[in-house]
Design goal:
The protein is of the alpha+beta class. It has helices at 10-28, 45-55, 62-76, 83-99, 102-127, 133-213, 217-246, 263-272, 290-310, 348-359, and strands at 276-282, 315-322, 326-334, 363-370, 375-384.
Length: 395
C-alpha cells in the first residue's frame, strides 16, 4: 500500500518555479560558478531540476528535503554549477529549521556551525593561507546563516502564537467574568423585585379573593381600601427600582435601600394586611453595614409575606438581635392549614432568603418545628457583620 505524497503548498510551488526559471536563465546567458569541471554543457541542469523538485516538499518534508538537497549540492560541484541551485539549497536549510520538528530546529544550526568551524580550520591547516578562511565563510553562508535565520523566525513565530493564545485565553476569561457578573446582577435584581413586590401583591390577592367570596359591603370596602393601599405602595416601590436601574451611576446597593430602621413601618403594613405581628428588636440597629441591614430587612419582609400567604391563624413573632459580631433574625409563625383565601406561592422567597444569607457567608434555616403546644414555621438567619472578602483578595 503506497502512502499518498503530501500536496505541496502553493508558496512552495512558486519558489520552485521561480528557482527553476532563474537557473535556466542563468544557464542560457552562460553564467557559471565553477570552471574546469568534468561535467559541462547541460549537466548543471540536472542538479537545478532536482533542487527545484525538493523545494516542493520544503514545508511538508523539510528534513528529507535538506538531506537530499545536500547530496544534490555535492553533485552540483562536479558541474559548472548554478547560483540558483545554491540559493535554493540555502532556502531548504532555512525551511528545515522553520517547519521541521523542534529537535531538528535545535540540531541543524548546531551542525551548520560545527561544519563551518571544521571547514575553516581544515582549509587553513591544509592551505596555510589566510584566503583559506573564505571557504569556511562560504560554508557558513550555505549552512549556518540560513539555519540561524530560521531559528530567529521560528522563535518569533512561536512567541506570536503564544501571545495570541494568551490573548484568546484572557478574552475568554473576561467573557466568563462578564457572564458571571451579568448572572449575579440578574439574580440580585430578581431578589429585589420579588421582595419589594411580592408582599403587596400577596395582600392584594388575598383581600381581592375575600372581597369576591364574602357578600358583605363593609368587608368589601375594607378589602378594597387595603388593595388600594398595597397597589399604591407596590407602584411606588416599582418606580423606585426602575429609577435605580435607569441610573447608570447607581451603586451596587443604593443609599435609598431599606434598613432595619424601617421594620416598624413594615410590621404596621403587615398588621394592616391582617397579620397579628409582634416585633422585638434587641441592640442598636444603626451603623450596620448596608448589605447586612438590607438582607435582614428583606428576610423579615419575605417571612411576613409567607406568613400572610400560608400561616395558620395566630401571632407571628419577629425577633431581630444585634450581637457584637452578627445580626440574628428569627421569625416564627403558626404552621398548618388556614381557612379563607390563600395566595399561591412559587418557592422563590425561600431561595432568595438563602441566597442573601449565602452572599454574606451567614447561615439560614427554615422549616416546621415543634413549638409551645403547636407546630410552628421558623425562619432563622445569622448574618455576620464582617463582610466576606471578594474573590481573589485575601480575607
Amino acid at each position: 500500500m503506497q502512502l499518498p505524497l503530501p500536496r505541496p503548498h502553493r508558496d512552495d510551488v512558486r519558489i520552485a518555479v521561480a528557482g527553476l526559471l532563474g537557473g535556466l536563465l542563468l544557464w542560457a546567458i552562460g553564467l557559471r560558478m565553477n570552471l574546469d569541471r568534468p561535467f559541462g554543457g547541460a549537466w548543471p541542469l540536472l542538479p537545478l531540476v532536482a533542487m527545484s523538485a525538493l523545494e516542493l516538499v520544503r514545508r511538508t518534508l523539510p528534513w528529507c528535503a535538506v538531506a537530499a538537497g545536500t547530496l544534490v549540492l555535492v553533485a552540483d560541484q562536479c558541474t559548472p554549477g548554478s547560483l540558483a541551485t545554491v540559493l535554493m539549497y540555502t532556502d531548504l536549510v532555512y525551511a528545515s529549521v522553520l517547519y521541521g520538528s523542534p529537535a531538528a530546529a535545535r540540531r541543524i544550526p548546531v551542525a551548520g556551525g560545527l561544519l563551518t568551524v571544521a571547514v575553516s580550520l581544515g582549509a587553513l591547516a591544509l592551505l596555510r593561507r589566510p584566503e583559506a578562511l573564505l571557504l569556511g565563510v562560504a560554508v557558513g553562508l550555505l549552512a549556518f546563516a540560513p539555519a540561524a535565520t530560521g531559528v530567529l523566525v521560528r522563535n518569533h513565530r512561536d512567541t506570536a502564537a503564544a501571545e495570541r493564545l494568551r490573548a484568546e485565553q484572557t478574552a475568554l476569561l473576561a467573557e466568563m467574568d462578564r457572564a458571571q457578573a451579568v448572572t449575579a446582577e440578574r439574580a440580585r435584581m430578581a431578589r429585589e423585585l420579588h421582595d419589594m413586590v411580592a408582599n403587596h401583591l400577596s395582600a392584594i390577592a388575598i383581600h381581592s379573593t375575600a372581597a369576591l367570596s364574602l357578600d358583605d359591603a363593609a368587608t368589601t370596602r375594607t378589602a378594597l381600601e387595603t388593595i388600594r393601599e398595597n397597589s399604591v405602595d407596590g407602584l411606588a416601590e416599582m418606580r423606585r427600582l426602575i429609577g435605580l436601574l435607569r441610573d447608570a451611576g447607581a451603586s451596587a446597593e443604593p443609599a435609598a435601600a431599606p434598613t432595619l430602621d424601617g421594620l416598624g413601618a413594615l410590621v404596621e403594613q403587615a398588621r394592616a394586611n391582617g397579620l397579628d405581628v409582634r416585633l422585638t428588636v434587641s441592640g442598636a440597629t444603626a451603623g450596620l453595614p448596608a448589605p447586612v441591614g438590607l438582607a435582614a430587612y428583606r428576610i423579615v419582609q419575605e417571612s411576613l409575606t409567607n406568613a400572610l400567604k400560608h400561616a395558620a391563624p395566630g401571632r407571628v413573632a419577629v425577633e431581630v438581635t444585634r450581637a457584637p459580631d452578627r445580626v440574628e433574625v428569627r421569625v416564627v409563625s403558626p404552621y398548618g392549614d388556614r381557612d379563607g383565601p390563600r395566595a399561591p406561592g412559587s418557592g422563590a422567597g425561600l431561595v432568595g432568603m438563602r441566597e442573601r444569607t449565602d452572599l454574606l457567608a451567614g447561615t439560614f434555616e427554615a422549616g416546621a418545628c415543634p413549638g409551645s403546644g403547636r407546630t410552628v414555621w421558623r425562619v432563622r438567619a445569622t448574618l455576620p457583620l464582617q463582610l466576606p472578602a471578594p474573590e481573589g483578595e485575601p480575607a
